[in-house]
Specification:
It contains 6 helices and 7 strands. The chain is α+β, with helices and mostly antiparallel strands. A hairpin with a 2-residue loop joins strand 6 and strand 7. It has a single domain (about 35-215), classed as Muramoyl-pentapeptide Carboxypeptidase, domain 2, CATH 3.30.1380.
């Protein structure tokens, strides 16, 4: 058996577990992992940003990002722009609601969310695809008008209407949702998170480390271009 330090008699199991989690996360963040984060609009300015967490139009009810910016790991960004290009040929485009998310923001979301709804937020003890820079929240917009297309639920809605298989809403709303999924999954680069029609994770996400870098501190990685 591995050696375990005895738990002090005056420390509850919950507090002891919190100490262990904090120790493990401190080890993770002692040295930030290398990354290939790139800013999406620098690769293609026609992609639309609607970064809800830089506003109060989100489930937290307040801004948690100081800037409306979107970053992804380079291969994930290239795959997203490929989906955007495919949609443009049909008169539509991708709108990005969220992309790379610092770990400290995910921790805040976990604390703000009631336990019964935590399937909609990532457990900070594990980190998330957003923290790794390879998950993205997206919708559709019409190129001609710039209007965002309606889906069966609003973005960030914590209800059954947000499910990728929800059969309610209008036929038009479901068609929009299904078109988005077809664009994102057609090449096998992304996979939808079933409870959230907007949430897509890049296929090689686990190879990237958990990051807690503020947007303003992100230095683009050198090397070959994404696209």
């Amino acid at each position: 058996m591995p050696f375990l330090t005895p738990m002090p008699g005056n420390v509850s199991m919950r507090k002891f577990s919190a100490v262990i989690v904090s120790f493990c996360l401190a080890a993770v963040f002692a040295k930030e992992p290398l990354h290939e984060l790139v800013e999406l609009v620098t690769l293609d300015p026609t992609i639309k940003l609607d970064i809800r967490y830089a506003t109060d139009r989100n489930f937290a009810g307040r801004s948690v990002y100081p800037e409306a910016r979107a970053f992804l790991q380079c291969p994930a960004a290239a795959a997203l722009l490929e989906a955007h290009s495919w949609l443009k040929a049909q008169g539509f485009g991708i709108v990005v609601y969220d992309a790379y998310r610092p770990w400290s923001v995910s921790k805040l979301f976990w604390e703000l969310t009631p336990p019964s709804r935590r399937k909609y937020v990532a457990n900070p003890s594990k980190g998330s695809g957003h923290n790794r820079g390879c998950a993205v929240d997206v919708g559709l917009f019409e190129l001609r008008s710039g209007r965002e297309l309606e889906m069966p639920s609003s973005y960030d809605e914590m209800s059954g209407r947000s499910s990728i298989s929800y059969a309610g809403g209008t036929a038009e709303q479901r068609n929009h949702r299904d078109l988005l999924r077809r664009a994102m999954e057609r090449k096998g680069h992304f996979k939808v998170y079933p409870p959230e029609w907007w949430h897509y994770t890049y296929r090689n996400c686990r190879k990237y480390g958990i990051l807690d870098i503020p947007f303003a501190a992100i230095v683009p990685a050198g090397g070959k271009p994404c696209i």
